[in-house]
Amino acid sequence: EGAGELHALAHAAGELAGPRAASLGILGELLIGMLTLLVLPLLVCTIVIGVAALKPASLGRLGAKAIVLYVSLSFAAAAIGIATAFALRPGAGFALPAAGVATPWVTRIGIEWLPDSVARIFAHGRYLALVLIAMLFAVAVAAARDRRMAAADTVYQFFERCGRVTQMLLRWVM
Question: Which end of the chain is more exposed for a tag (fewer CB within 10 A), N or C?
Answer without folding.
Answer: N
